[in-house]
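U., I forgot to send this yesterday:
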Amino acid sequence: MNQLSTLNVLIPGQHATVRELLSSGSIRRRLLDIGLIENTDVECIGRSPGGDPTAFLIRGAVIAIRSEDCRNILIQLPC
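Result:
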């Protein structure tokens, strides 16, 4: 099995699979509502000029997520 990492390590063009959300409270609810659940494929689309937030393609929608929140999303990179 591949090592787990956090969503903020993805660079534009990379894909990964969500393994676990470590967030709690309202941000956890928001992430779950946009479909960021276990086994969801995500692709990094790009970063803002300042580097935060980062845009991800999640279930057909482009979603911007702050680095602070990306650190609480565990992913698995493909082999």
